[in-house]
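Internal ticket #5521
Category: modeling
Description: The requester needs a full-assembly model to guide mutagenesis choices. All entity lines are attached below as received. Residue total reported by intake: 646.
Assigned to: D.W.
Attached entities:
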Amino acid sequence: MNIDMIRAAARRLEGHARRTPLLSSPFLDAIAGRRVFVKPECLQHTGSFKFRGGWSAVSALTEDQRQRGVIAFSSGNHAQGVASAARSHGAPCVIVMPQDAPAVKITNTKGLGAEVIMYDRATEDRDAIGARIAAERGLTLIKPFDDPQVIAGQGTTGLEIAADAAALGITHADVIVCCGGGGLTSGIALACEADAPTLRVRPAEPVGFDDVARSLTSGTIQRNPRLTGSLCDAIITPQPGDITFPILKRLCGPGLVVSDDECLRAMNVAFSHLRIVLEPGGAAALAGALYHGDQIDGDTVIVVASGGNVDPATFQRALDITA
Amino acid sequence: MNIDMIRAAARRLEGHARRTPLLSSPFLDAIAGRRVFVKPECLQHTGSFKFRGGWSAVSALTEDQRQRGVIAFSSGNHAQGVASAARSHGAPCVIVMPQDAPAVKITNTKGLGAEVIMYDRATEDRDAIGARIAAERGLTLIKPFDDPQVIAGQGTTGLEIAADAAALGITHADVIVCCGGGGLTSGIALACEADAPTLRVRPAEPVGFDDVARSLTSGTIQRNPRLTGSLCDAIITPQPGDITFPILKRLCGPGLVVSDDECLRAMNVAFSHLRIVLEPGGAAALAGALYHGDQIDGDTVIVVASGGNVDPATFQRALDITA
């Protein structure tokens, strides 16, 4: 896993992934007490950065692998990213999703042409279900984060941040990234190491699901005690990956930990002042920048708003809250 | 009023206005029955295309005029565009707003440093109020649409559409534009005439406030019978402008007329599938593309989503409606 793979992924994504800008608003700056730049990956195809990793992985397959097809496990964003990339490449796609995934994510994944197989998180073993189908049909598994080509795709986000920060004259800043298993965070960290080494990448996670923050503190992989009970479904994973964690450990600053309410407030701010739609997990980094400024250094912070696939009922909670 | 003024405005806006992309989603294409590209001016600074016209007008003033300051009448989007441009140029700014403007627009205009003077639409004459203040302080009035430098600024939207359509290989398409007094629509029409003459620009307006559509049909300026009772506050004006109408008449295709409910449905679609926040008036063109496809020619349509400054309560109505 290295920068050359990220640069190669960027070439494969050229003309296919959307190059998202850095958004800003004086109202965000006032709340945060410093300049805030937001990279809205909610505007990416399929509504999250996961399209990048999906495209990178599918486009790196052999023609024979593509013809047999791909399979992924996902509560939603990885599912849509892989499904969309697979369809564009003419590859059959099976997605194994938990029954309690947000309805909008299930509907959209089906709408992107994937075959969706539902399972019950409480009683069924998704790995067993997936392994059986993959074996029967010769499908290639595309993991959500612990896969070099997936990390390479997500890392293209970091190449864009490095280029745009340089254009804006930003030399020192924390880059806060919504973090589940660490695919996006580790990819951005590798890209910044190469192209913007004075930027410091830091993960943001929900309270109670801060496996990466605790792993960074302890220096060893820590697990979350549970996997349900957060609004931030997009970034809840059991533990950092075997590939991602060594990268995070080597390159990242300390993790930020935010509450569900803070994520809802950040969604409200993004609605009012950036006019973008964020999901709770996609707003965790912005929540860190807006409401945990005492843990951030410098006069500028860059935030990756990683996704915007949210059910209307959850979005209404963000509209109802006082930012 | 000509293309050279638009190109000059584009040079003045360079590095200040955001260059918005063309967004798309297979889900929108499926609803519309053709390819749909959306230019999200809700992502523009201050949340609408009005920043372009405001910046163009303020940057075209003499240093002496800028030091005395500017004044504008607006229910909100023009107010914020002018206020933000004035602040960046160090020009004092007075905005005269109706008391029934959306709260978010009033709050944001004040937050951008403008002095806001409220008036009662029913009992007070805003022109008299504005004229008195302008005379007392020597302020320059920046009209919302019937001003060549404002039209020039809005027209930069059309230069970007022409360039992006060419890059996508789009040769023939309707370009549907949310239309109030016609500043944005006429500016885009002039830009497309020069740079993409096979694109056809068409206004979209709310039912009952379709002065431009009726004016285009009759060939003479028609007025709206009333000015209240639409959700689309951003695009309700008494009649097309004296400068804008001749341009619209010469260059535009027939107007599209959409209902408030169709605008709310379009906002819902934009929320779910583009993850952008639109206000009702900013969704009129998308509503036309999605729900009036029988009036549109060709396999591709381009839509300008002109703004996203919407109160949470109105946005909730869009979340509650079935798209």
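Resolution: model delivered.
Comment from assignee: Residues 44 and 107 of chain A are 18 Å apart (CA to CA).
Ticket closed.
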